[in-house]
Structures are given as structure tokens and as C-alpha cells.
UniProtKB/TrEMBL annotation:
Domain of life: Eukaryota
Protein's UniProt name: ATP-dependent DNA helicase
EC number(s) recorded for this UniProt protein: 5.6.2.3
Native source organism of the sequence: Dendrobium nobile (Orchid)
Pfam families with a match to the protein in the record: Helitron_like_N (PF14214), PIF1 (PF05970)
InterPro entries linked: DNA_helicase_pif1-like_DEAD, Helitron_helicase-like, NA-bd_OB-fold, P-loop_NTPase
Highest classification ranks of the organism: Eukaryota, Viridiplantae, Streptophyta, Embryophyta, Tracheophyta
Residues of the DNA helicase Pif1-like DEAD-box helicase domain: 291-497
């Protein structure tokens, strides 16, 4: 090869006369310099060791190639229909003032890379793509650091990074370091298309671990499934760019859809994987050997029904202590151990927490709080929860008599819908349990007969239910006296000493002598040998139920993490985004049965978790979270704390709903500006009060007295409120009301938000509500 380019250089094949002479027989300028810049294993190129001179050389040769291409189009204007563009010259001649448009115009075809027509074509292509697929998600620019080890490894002896501008593989390393496998798969697809790497398979092998990092973390996934899942994702990205994985030298993707149909269901369904990961306590597996005869009958019938895939609705009926929970544990452990999905629920959170993997029925099945004869659970057929219910073998629902029958019927209708079946509960095996002697459904302001009409025995489902009675009191074996007493109370057999009051047997009571001694005696009875046992979690857990839990807001203490309160939601503020756009916040106002109020604040994921289940006027059990000191300047509650609901928090629908909500729509002025016609209460703090001034209305020259208030609202925004009045007396009253540093509630709605004007009627509201 010659050391310089000239127009008469012939292609090697032409010289060897192996191909026919054509117009393409000569080596083009671009071909010549591409050849010179190529890296060859056994050929030492001076140019490639020239450091910065190499860059100079590349730029010079680029200009040379570009000039020769431009030269070509200059000589061949007649072949590119440049006459079409002559009108442009005329228009320029008519009024063009730009200097760069003077001189002789050479028209460049769109095939001239970098020319205006090429750029315009690319721009239009890009716009068409954006129109079709939306804005691009990813715009990657890379800055290369010559000190990177990956680049140094590729250098030949004596070379520096300047000698090798072609090294770009570092970008994959960058992405893999951030461990974003999905982004990495997308980048991999982009590189395949735009960078055309020479050895795709090698690149795949090198980065496979990073590309499939998330799939490898899935429990029990096989190597083949992991590879296929990764390739499938890459293929998806390639297809979006008009290519396919078959176009590249990558492992084959056999029968992808079939492989992943089942796998996807399991992998992508968080509900199913969570349910499958419930840990069965080892001791529960041995329970079946200790069941008494009643428990055994029920156990065998239920397990058989599941194994035979026949439907059945059961009710385990037994007074307290007859071993209902014991039986559920036996059923759950046996079925889960055999690979079945068993869903454990209970009406109350306490009962649910005793069952392994237990959840409250309302939250598990998304039963609406106001269930009626026609309601359905908030479960869509395509959702993960629907898949879980479809695949489950059995559903357990403890404390069923405590819930309104309409909630159970709602689940029945939903299951029929999900299973596309007219059989009760879609043909699933359902086991209810509980004791009708214990708490019946709470129906607000209902008479005794109305309450009974809501009991599950009055449901259309009851006649299909097979009842198993547990009679032997297993608790009585250890505490005969107590269990007999509880049974008598439940059956209504215990004699009343006064209207609705019974006498607690003396043997079960601690005699009162004086405060100190009796308290000591109570503690010693509940916590015998406390000093030896205080570190035993079992000992403490067994006694926890005996501890008083008031569930009142006033029982909360600063920085307490684990707590529980029963409260009605008085107000749910709108979700507000942070100014940065990153994150959101929502505030609830809660009130307990004593009327104490507290704010509960939720952020981001906590909002997503609870937002849909919360309703104003409903009572919930809120547990766990952060208890923080409140900023009292602005808040309209007497409490000292506010609650931050976080990842450890739980909210359950309370069975009692006897707390009357108090609605008090405290907002900030911004909210009212956006919705001026809906009146709203605002709490404001007076910062400043102006002097009294007399003003005359322009139209009729009527006299008013006026004052300006400088106030600040809950969001620390300062506003000026102007109030004016004809009635001097009321005006004077207001003057006393608005003192600096005083808080007041104002009912506001209106139109003129430049200055908030207060008219007669609003002021009266204000007096009524001020405090
Ligand atoms: N077959 C059994 N063998 C040994 N102990 C048992 C058996 N069945 C139940 N028990 C024990 O009896 C006690 C009461 O049982 P369990 O809590 O299951 O009753 P329950 O009917 O659910 O009561 P409640 O309605 O009050 O919740 C527990 O301590 C349990 O371990």
C-alpha cells in the first residue's frame, strides 16, 4: 500500500484481476484512510502511535474526505435535480441578508452525511419516532476517562489512551457498576444496534452476570430460565428499535412464551411469592398427631376435600379454648407443606397475627368497608391478588361471626366472578371458624334483632355450610376454673348480680388490701419469677394479652415505635407533591373515642400502601410508626405529638365504629384559591393588625370602618386580609378578636384573592368558630 492517497489507486482485487473492472475499481479517499487507521495484529502502524498527532491527522484527513465529497457534488449537480432548488436562489436574491447565503449555491443531496438535508431528514425521523413512541426515556452521553483500567488493558505496549479513541466498552462497565440490570439490558440492546460490536457473543458472555443480576436473585430459578428471561428482555428492547435477537450472534431463545407463561405468573406475582414464602413453624407440623377426636374429624374432612379438589364450606364452631386455632395451624402447616397455597385470615388483627401468614380478611380480600348485598371486593380479574385466589387451595377465616354477613357474601360474589363459576366461593374450600358466644358484628345504632340479621347465620350461604363442633375444652385441662366460667358467661348461664353484671369468682381475683400491696400481688401473679424470666420472649409473649391496652391517643409517648390506637379519620388532606417534585405527603386527622385528635402523616410508599383503604368517618386501628413532637404554632389539636406512618405501620379496619367523626376541613389559602366556590375552614395566625381606617364606598359614598390583618397559614404563607364593616359594634368585637399572636379559624370562600376580603356573613361565621 502506498503511503499517500492518489486518485489512481486501484482496489487490490482489481489489480489481481479477480473482479471485473467497473466504475468502483478505484480506492476512494475514505476507503484509503479507513484502511490506514485500522488496527492489525501483526502490523505496526506509525500513525497509531503518534499520540496527539494522530488526532491532528484524523481531523486533516476528515476534512480532505469531506472536501472530495463536496467536490463530487459540485461536479455532479445535474444528477441530483438541483434545478428544483433554484427558486430558493431567487428568493434569497430578492431579500436575503444573511452573508452565508451569498456566493454560488451548491445543493447537497440528503445522502451527504451531515449536510442540511441529511440533518433535516434525521430530525424528521426523530420527530416521527417521538410522535409514535413518546418522548425518549434515555439520553446517554458518555465521557471517557483515559485512566480507566479497562482502557489501559486494551492498549498495546507504548500506546497511550490518545492513540486509541476507539475504546468505548467502558460504558457497559459503568452501567453494571450501578447494578441496574434492566437499564443495562436496554443499553446492551442499544449498543448492539448503534455500535455494531464485532464479537457480540463475547460481550454477552462477559456481561451476562450483570445483565441477569435481578433474575439470578429469584429463588429456585434455573440457569436456562434465567438466560432466557434476560434474552427475552433484550429482545423486547431490540424489537422496539425494529430489530430482533435473531439478527445477532446470541444464544437462541427456544419457545420463550411457553417457558415463561407459568414462570412469569409466579415471578411477577408478588402476592403469590409472598404467600409461598410464609414460614411454617416446625412445631405446627407435629400438631396433627396430637389432635383430639373432634379436631381430627374436621381436619381429615377438610384435607380430603382439598386433595380431591372438591368444594366445601365449613364452620368450626367451638367455645373459647376448644382448640379452633390449634386446628387451623394443623390445617395450614399440612397443606403448605404439601405445596398448596393456603390463605389464612381473621376478622380482627389480633386473631390474624396468631395464624402463620395471617392477615385481616378485609385487607387480604379488599372487602369494601360498607359492604352490602351487591358489593364486590376491589380485586380486578387480572390482578396478582386474583391470581393468588385462583391458585389457592383453601381459605381460612377465623372469627367469622364477628363480621357482617354482607362482607362474607361480598367475598362469595367476588370468588364466583374470579373463578367464572356459579358454585359458592367459586368452588374453593373455605373454612370459617369462631364462637357465636363471643362478639357479634357491630352494627351502628342497631337493635338486637337488626344485629342478628347481619350475623352470618342469616346469610344465604349458611345452609351450605358444614359445621364441625369442637366440644372438649382443651384450655380447661390447664385452667379448669377459668374456662368453665368463660363458658357459662358465653352461654348466658352465669347468674347476674345486677343488671348485666356478674360476679367474678373470688378464686380468680386478687384481694384488695391497699394500693401498694395489691399492685405488688397483681404483678407477682401475672409475672411470677420475673427476675429469672424477663429475657425469655416466650414468657413475656404468653403474658402480653393480660397487659392493658387503652388504644387511646393520650397513651402515645414520644419516640415510641410500637403502639396501637383506635381512631376515626376526621379528615384526609389531598396528596401534596414536594416542590422538588420528588416525593409526596398526605396528612390525616385522627380522633379517638375520648375526642383527642392527632395528625398522622404519610409519605411516598406509605401513601400508596394505605391511600385506597382509608375513608373519612371510618374507624381504624393504627399501629406502629414514629411518634414526633408537634409544631404547635399552627396545629389545631391539643396533643403534643404527631404520627409519622412508615414501613412498620399497619392500618386495619376496626370492628367497632362507634366513634362519631367530627369534620373540620382545615385547609390553606392556596387550596381555596384553586377552588373558590367551596367554603373551607382556615386556621390563621395573626402577625400584625393595622390601624382602624374609615373608607367611603365610591358608588354611594357609604361609610365603612376597615382594618388590615397580616396573617400566616398552615403552610407558612403570609397573606393580607382586609376586613371592613358598616356596623361599628361588630367591628369593635372583631378588633378584640384579632390580636397579634392569636390564632383563629376563618370560614372562607370568595373571588377576590388579591386581598382577602371579609364580608359580614363571613365575619359572623368567624366569630362562631373562633377560639
Ligand atoms: N389437641 C390439643 N392438644 C393439646 N393442646 C391443645 C389441643 N387443642 C388445643 N390445645 C391448647 O388449648 C389451648 C386453647 O386452644 P386454642 O387457642 O386453639 O383455642 P380456641 O378455640 O382458638 O380459643 P379462643 O376461641 O379463645 O381463641 C391452647 O393452649 C392450645 O395449645
Amino acid at each position: 500500500m502506498q503511503d499517500y492517497f492518489n486518485l489512481n489507486l486501484l482496489h487490490f482485487a482489481v489489480i489481481m484481476e479477480s473482479i471485473k473492472r467497473t466504475s468502483k475499481e478505484r480506492v476512494s479517499c475514505r476507503e484509503y484512510y479507513s484502511y490506514k487507521l485500522q488496527i492489525r495484529e501483526h502490523e505496526k502502524s506509525v500513525i497509531l502511535y503518534a499520540g496527539r498527532l494522530l488526532h491532528q491527522y484524523v481531523v486533516d484527513m476528515y476534512v480532505k474526505i469531506e472536501t472530495s465529497r463536496l467536490d463530487f457534488y459540485k461536479q455532479n449537480q445535474h444528477t441530483i435535480r438541483s434545478d428544483l432548488y433554484k427558486g430558493i436562489i431567487d428568493s434569497v436574491a430578492a431579500g436575503e441578508t444573511q452573508s452565508n447565503n451569498t456566493g454560488k449555491r451548491i445543493i447537497l443531496p440528503p445522502s451527504f452525511i451531515g449536510g442540511p438535508r441529511d440533518m433535516r431528514r434525521r430530525y424528521l425521523d426523530a420527530m416521527a419516532l417521538c410522535q409514535r413512541f413518546g418522548k425518549p426515556d434515555l439520553f446517554i452521553t458518555m465521557t471517557c476517562n483515559p485512566d480507566w483500567q479497562e482502557i489501559k488493558n486494551e492498549l498495546k505496549p507504548g500506546q497511550t489512551a490518545q492513540d486509541r479513541p476507539d475504546l468505548t466498552t467502558h460504558c457497559l462497565n459503568d452501567a453494571s457498576n450501578y447494578q441496574m440490570p434492566n437499564a443495562l439490558r436496554q443499553l446492551f440492546a442499544i449498543l448492539l444496534i448503534y455500535c455494531e460490536p464485532t464479537n457480540v457473543l463475547q460481550l454477552w458472555n462477559e456481561y451476562y452476570t450483570d445483565l441477569s443480576h435481578d433474575y439470578q436473585a429469584i429463588k429456585d430459578i434455573s440457569y436456562d430460565d434465567c438466560v432466557s428471561k434476560t434474552l427475552l428482555d433484550i429482545n423486547l428492547f431490540l424489537e422496539r428499535m425494529g430489530r430482533s435477537i435473531d439478527d445477532f450472534d446470541l444464544p437462541e431463545l427456544p419457545h420463550v412464551q411457553e417457558i415463561f407463561h407459568d414462570l412469569n405468573d409466579e415471578l411477577n406475582n408478588r402476592e403469590i411469592s409472598e404467600e409461598r414464602n410464609v414460614i411454617t413453624p416446625a412445631e405446627d407440623l407435629n400438631i396433627i398427631h396430637t389432635l383430639n377426636s373432634n379436631q381430627k374429624n374436621a381436619f381429615e374432612e377438610i384435607i380430603n376435600r382439598v386433595n380431591q379438589k372438591r368444594h366445601g364450606i365449613f364452620f368450626i364452631d367451638g367455645p373459647g379454648g376448644t382448640g379452633k386455632t390449634y386446628l387451623y395451624r394443623a390445617i395450614l402447616s399440612t397443606l403448605r407443606n404439601e405445596g398448596h397455597i393456603a390463605i389464612a385470615t381473621a376478622t380482627s388483627g389480633v386473631a390474624a397475627s396468631i395464624l402463620p401468614g395471617g392477615r385481616t380478611a378485609h385487607s387480604r380480600f379488599k372487602i369494601p368497608i360498607n359492604s352490602t348485598e351487591t358489593t364486590l371486593c376491589a380485586i380486578t380479574k387480572q390482578s396478582g391478588l386474583a391470581q393468588l385466589l385462583k391458585q389457592s387451595s383453601i381459605i381460612l377465616w377465623d372469627e367469622a361471626p364477628m363480621v357482617k354477613r354482607t362482607a362474607i357474601e361480598t367475598l362469595d360474589r367476588t370468588m364466583k366472578d374470579i373463578m367464572n363459576s356459579s358454585i359458592s366461593f367459586g368452588g374453593k374450600v373455605i373454612v370459617f371458624g369462631g364462637d357465636f358466644r363471643q362478639v357479634l358484628p357491630v352494627v351502628r345504632r342497631a337493635s338486637r334483632s337488626e344485629t342478628i340479621s347481619y350475623s352470618m347465620v342469616k346469610s344465604y350461604l349458611w345452609e351450605d355450610i358444614e359445621v364441625f363442633k369442637l366440644k372438649e375444652n382443651m384450655r380447661a385441662r390447664t385452667d379448669h376454673l377459668f374456662s368453665e366460667f368463660i363458658l357459662r358467661i358465653g352461654n348466658g348461664d352465669e347468674e347476674e348480680i345486677e343488671d348485666g353484671l356478674v360476679h367474678i369468682p373470688n378464686e380468680m381475683m386478687i384481694e384488695y388490701s391497699n394500693n401498694e400491696a395489691s399492685e405488688h400481688s397483681l404483678i407477682c401473679t401475672i409475672f411470677p419469677s420475673l427476675c429469672e424470666n424477663f429475657s425469655s420472649s416466650e414468657y413475656i409473649m404468653e403474658r402480653l394479652n393480660l397487659m392493658e391496652s387503652s388504644n387511646l391517643i393520650k397513651s402515645l409517648s414520644l419516640n415510641q415505635r410500637y403502639w396501637s390506637i383506635t381512631a376515626v379519620i376526621n379528615q384526609i388532606d389531598a396528596v401534596k407533591m414536594f416542590k422538588s417534585g420528588q416525593g409526596k405527603i398526605q396528612k390525616l386527622t385522627l380522633m379517638d373515642k375520648e375526642g383527642s385528635k392527632i395528625y398522622a402523616i404519610m409519605f411516598n410508599e406509605t401513601i400508596d400502601k394505605f391511600h385506597n383503604m382509608l375513608q373519612i368517618g371510618k374507624t381504624y386501628i393504627f399501629s406502629n410508626g414514629q411518634i414526633k413532637a408537634i409544631n404547635k404554632d399552627f396545629y389545631n389539636v391539643n396533643e403534643n405529638f404527631e404520627i409519622i406512618l412508615n414501613s412498620i405501620s399497619e392500618i386495619q379496619v376496626a370492628i367497632t365504629d362507634d366513634i362519631e367523626p367530627v369534620t373540620n376541613n382545615l385547609s390553606v389559602i392556596e387550596d381555596i384559591k384553586s377552588n373558590p366556590n367551596s367554603p373551607s375552614d382556615i386556621i390563621l395566625l395573626v402577625l400584625n393588625v393595622s390601624e382602624v381606617r374609615v373608607i367611603y364606598r365610591q358608588t354611594d359614598k357609604k361609610k365603612f370602618v376597615k382594618r388590615d390583618l397580616q396573617v400566616v397559614d398552615l403552610r407558612y404563607v403570609i397573606h393580607i386580609i382586609l376586613y371592613f364593616f358598616k356596623n361599628i359594634l361588630l367591628f369593635i368585637i372583631l378588633c378584640f378578636l384579632f390580636l397579634i399572636g392569636q390564632k383563629f379559624v376563618l370560614l372562607l370562600y370568595g373571588k377576590d384573592w388579591q386581598q382577602l376580603k371579609v364580608n359580614n356573613w363571613r365575619i359572623q361565621e368567624m366569630i362562631k368558630q373562633s377560639f
